[in-house]
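Blinded run. Sample ID left blank on purpose so nobody reads anything into the name before looking at the predicted structure. Input follows.
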Amino acid sequence: MASQANANPGPILFWCGVAVAEFGAIQPGFGYPWRPTAYAAAALLVALGFLIVKAADHLRTEEARQRLRLGGYLAGALLVAHEFSSTAYVTELSRAGSVALYAMAAVMAVRSHRVPATARPTLLIATGLDPSALRARLDGATDTVAVYRIERATDELRDLEARYGLILVEGGEHDPRAKERVSASGLSREFPDISDRDVVVAGPRQFKRYVGGALSRLAVPRSQIHFKSQQKV
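Blinded prediction complete.
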């Protein structure tokens, strides 16, 4: 994902547009003295665009990277609005041209960072489901992996294990080995990329509370965690 962010010119294009708009506010057009502050401000804004791109590459999840980039877009928009509202000697032609270039860069940047709704695979962590409902959930869902806790595996569950890669966790509610498998340490070992997944948790309230705490410790974003009743999976 980091390589995709590096190849995406959206943030840099955006901040170049902000630099042009800022330059138009400080250095409005022909006939005005060339001010060093205009060049310094434009260069700093372009450098800020590069910094945001690099900082986003080091964040763990794509959602966090998107938030950083969109936060940068908002900061750039507010900066341009402030300059044009506080600078009285900006000419109308310079104002219109700078704002048009800035708006084009902003649209390109935001469109280039739109995350598709199907970008993340799904992890289902459940207990107490009817095996037929579990089969229906896994059938045809190539991007879904399921972890299912059961006291004792049945032949039908073994068939789901062989057919769909269902991960069976055998043990009762208070079995320490079963609890460890769905704990923060157990889930991180089984799914190192869990923070990049949508996680669906289904089962009794106590089970959902326990797994939800493990997901919080793993820093899985709340927007990616979905608690479901046993009937709605």
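Unblinding after everyone has recorded impressions. The mean pLDDT is 75.
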